[in-house]
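Hey team,

Sharing the Tropomodulin isoform X12 run so nobody has to redo it. Sequence (410 residues) first:
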Amino acid sequence: MDSYKRTTVHSEMSDVPEFQRIKLRPIPEIKPKIPQPSFNLSLRKTSSTTKTTSLTAPAKLYGKDLSEYDEVDVDALLAQLSPEEINILAKEVDPDDNFLPPDQRCSYECTKSPTGPLDRKKLIEHINKQALETPDQPEFEPYVKGTVRGKKWIPPPRDQRALEVEEQIAIDMGDEYEQALSHATQEEIIDLAAILGFHSMMNQDQYHASLLNKGQPVGLGWDGITKSTQQKVYPMDPPNNTDVEESIKRVKEDDPKLIELNFNNIKNISDEKFEQLFEVLPKNEHLEVLSLTNVGLTDKTALLLAEAIEKSKTLRVLNVETNFISPPVVVKLVKALLKCRTIEEFRASNQRSAVLGNKIEMEITDLVEKNTSLLRLGLHLEFNDARHRVAAHLQRNIDRIRVQRLNQRK
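Structure output:
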């Protein structure tokens, strides 16, 4: 009899989820609030209109109102759990936290020992073999060719009046055009369709051949199939082999032969090297072009560059595209151009933030409109107002310099 009871109790406990079988230590009792009774309240007026308001019972959890659980200290409850009980509880809960890695959010834990390093080829072969050896699940209703299951869709009949109207529509282009089109060849019709912009009537080769007047490809008509063209292979750009330390030394010594310094696509330049370069840059009187594209410039080094620009005397072109400069620091670089009246071209597009924002673009626009020496600006401005104002001001600067050159020649 005792064994029967133990078996019955064990079977009942097996139906309960594992996290509900955790034994908690006693916690201080919470003074229960007086539950609000459930009743229906009807308000009636003496007029012809009747207004009825119904109050339902509050939601409950384990026989208690949800408001009673507001005072429960969850941290105190978790502190009473053992590490094993916390692991059991964690398996039942999936935290909605994007900052947690997926392996910590997933309740599945692999207990198998590792078999060695990953071999992708063997893994794919094993997956394919397992897929081929696994039998297909039987269909509830086997497929029978020609058998229609369910209702077959039949389009509704069209209105006879609409059909008559379509039959009566005719385009009268005149005898001259009709005679020209009736005697035109297929290639001429394709050329005409390309000129009129009917892209869907032809393929890409036919369209470009018509626009460039190269003649239609042989064997391609209205039903022609475009064949793939041979891809043009361009040689890879050679790596930038500029010696960073030697270049900084030449800038420091004010080498008159060093007019252009190109550090583009050099990845291993440290911040210390940038600090050395920007420290000696204001003292150089011969460097005119400085290119720092895709070199990993950050806000820290860009601020040092802004200070060096303010003191530069000969720099005309500055390129800092494809780096990690934030929009506020881009504004400081543009602001530094006001003190350096020699820079004519400044490029700083494709930075860490793809969109500058309206506030940043308006600040850049105001600074550019105060600059009388800037002729070209390489920045992606999203708003039309900023683009138009910047373009108009740069054009005025170009026109003013052109007039000054003409006056000097005279």
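The first strand starts at residue 39 and ends at 43.

Ping me if you want the raw files.
A.
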